[in-house]
Amino acid sequence: xxxxxxxxxxxxxxxxxxxxxxxxxxxxxxxxxxxxxxxxxxxxxxxxxxxxxxxxxxxxxxxxxxxxxxxxxxxxxxxxxxxxxxxxxxxxxxxxxxxxxxxxxxxxxxxxxxxxxxxxxxxx
Amino acid sequence: xxxxxxxxxxxxxxxxxxxxxxxxxxxxxxxxxxxxxxxxxxxxxxxxxxxxxxxxxxxxxxxxxxxxxxxxxxxxxxxxxxxxxxxxxxxxxxxxxxxxxxxxxxxxxxxxxxxxxxxxxxxxxxxxxxxxxxxxxxxxxxxxxxxxxxxxxxxxxxxxxxxxxxxxxxxx
Lengths: 124, 172
Prior knowledge:
The structure holds two protein chains of two kinds. Chain A contains three helices and no strands. Chain A has a domain at 38-123. Chain A has helices at 3-6, 16-28, 38-123. Chain B folds into two domains: 9-91, RNA polymerase sigma factor, region 2, helix turn helix motif (Rna Polymerase Sigma Factor, Chain: A); 100-172, Arc Repressor Mutant, subunit A. Chain B has nine helices and no strands. In chain B, α1 (9-28) packs antiparallel against α2, α1 packs parallel to α3 (55-80) and α7 (132-139) crosses α8. The model of chain B is unreliable at 85-98 (pLDDT under 50). Chain A binds chain B through residues 1-2, 5, 12-13, 17-18, 20-22, 24-35, 38-39, 41-43, 45-46, 49, and chain B through 9-10, 13-14, 17-22, 25-26, 35, 38-39, 42-43, 46, 96, 100, 103-105, 107-108, 111, 122-123, 126-127, 129-133, 150-151, 154-155, 157-158, 161, 168, 172.
């Protein structure tokens, strides 16, 4: 106890009666024993809380993994779709080029035949 | 380099459960509530274990948090509208207090009727043997306020005792 404070009770109240009262009060205010089950309950709650925390952490990891997986699937799907569209675009372009080449050949043939026809007409 | 103190939670519970429980009981006046407060205080200690630097730090930390959580519990009770003083009247005098003399029990009852700040100062002073300076740190109040609360609390308690404790007056 703070000796200066406790040795000068007259500063607080000022009489032997007050000192006696303080002594009674101090006796009445001794620490009470904790309930015998308190420590067990604290340790149980602590253990339960730690288990909960581990469980919560695991759930968060699972959520993160699931989110990453979903993200990867979405990104993969998106990438595959773009590749597929590009492939189809290339294929259509090739088909168009082939069609243009065929058309070009046909037109050249027709042109040549018309030129031959004109020459034979002039020769007559 | 000095080796850092490694706190052992179970040992801290063993050493301080009586102190924390007593502070909570005297501040709330309710044994059940005091047990809840004590549990909360130790579970909070568990969360803060890495910040506890020494046995003295642990003791002061526990005192401070026990007082603060008890005040919170009282406020929650008031908000819920529970008549605490009726409960105190009911609970004091239960078998748990059989070890105390009737005078001590009555003094504790009277203590529980003091304003919260005065009760806190007196509990820390007479249960924990703390100096006004230490109390000021524990309740986070200016030292002048703590000294004033100690004086007023003691005076009020003595006045109540004079009125109510006939056996005490007879004994003087």
